[in-house]
């Protein structure tokens, strides 16, 4: 048999046959060993993979099982053992004090925080009817990115739906309670109001398509009319109690537009009459409102960037601009976002009068250390009185919102040699085939136009509209139809009856409602974008030609330049000046912007980040979105909704120099 081997005889040891047999045996043994080794190595690889997958699945299901079986109070128990006792949520605290629902509340979400769903689309969007394209899991970005970009963009000529596409806002409280799973926006505030006794009969989410210009939300969806009817209904079914309106972020501008629209005569307005707001609104509690605009909106429109993008470039240079896979991320973002007309509502307003000029700004002298910045700055200058240049070097020219080069940002205006870009002749870039699908208006400028922008060197708020009209004329043609960014000389001029002025607090009057109250609620204590150092991009045709210079920065903790961005106090998105000026000065008392003397209050919330990950996003945050979970803010909202006045809340509460900064702004009141 083949499996039996003859035992070698002693006399065969030295013979030729025995040598041959030994050789065969060795080969057979080595072959078997190699085969066993290969099988053992192959088995080990598969075994390791299966073991890893099994461990992950087992751990996940075990954690899920424990999460669903443990007492609801267990996570809080663990957190309190580590961080100490947690305070009562505002809703519980107010219930203990006997507060009850009185005024109906209306939430007005800001840009990007409201969900959008598909009602009609192209073939690539098959199966997505009434599925969220914005908000939720954002799964379609990864599954079909080109299709998603196509459906999230608006028509570049009309600012409305492209042919064959209908994307509409999600309705109800779920429209903006969570931005994504686990990332709350309005959910914490809604939950605390519910603890007091609120429900859907006296809570309403005024959802709208935040991509559209404000007036176009009425043209396309009749959103303003539906908000008007819902507020009237809520006041009626709640025994005539006026509504408390709570707008957030860009929603502040949207509701400012609404208050003018609702009282303006039809067909441009809602025809509610000059006393509609007085009859239906108890208070407007603006949260993080960019009433004077936000420099961050400018950088987004100019180069599809912000501080975070500049920081990412510093960590991983070239990734965002890499064309290896033809991803062209920022170009796609720019092409899409420039069709969203609402973004133009947040371009800084008021020009140099509000935001400062080449050599001054209201916040001059500010340094990042919140509590002691004045002392630090003053002591520095006092120690260097013999050398005035050293003191001037510490002065930051925040009024230069865009500077091409750090030297330009720091040089006195008398030493700047600027060439006006407005009369420059544009060319045209012959972009290669890889960038045809992300064609932007920069391709219509040519190298001569791009060079002209850089040679102007420094741009103040008074130059920004002209700058955007030069680099993005199609976008600004739509934008100038729906928005204005100036400062009115005479508010009685008939031209200000047009809707393009209604969302600009500096070009419109508040309603005649002397019993109404307006609050500015916003976070402070976080470095917030104020102005930028730019450079020309190293590449030309297929890329956005301008970039924030992330190499421009200081190591000194008391200097506000980092990654090419100068910062001031604010909530990380909106500077305190923009959020607070109107309630601090523009609307304070009877002014031409507030002819009926509506009472105004400022409530600042000093940022206190969570001390550990168990606290999540914290209960004392002042960040632009996280403030929606700030216990102090929620308590203030509940008390006003329950009937308290601004005086009963304690009046103004400020941590910044908002009143000092406002006094530096010289406008006619």
Radius of gyration: 31 Å
Distance between the termini: 113 Å
Quaternary structure state of the chains depicted: single chain
What share of the residues does DSSP label as strand, in percent?
A: 5-15%
> Helical element count?
24
Count every beta strand, where a strand is a DSSP E run of 2 or more residues.
17
Overall geometric form: globular
Helix/strand-derived category reads alpha/beta
Describe the strand arrangement of the main beta sheet, using strand numbers: 7-1-8-9-12-17
Taking the sheet with the most strands, its summary is: 6 strands, parallel
Helix share bin = 25-40%
Average pLDDT, all residues: 84
Identify low-pLDDT runs. Answer: 1-20, 34-42, 323-327, 370-393
What's this entry about, in short?
With 669 residues, this protein is α/β, with parallel strands linked by helices. Helices cover 38% and strands 12% of the residues. 45% of the residues are buried.
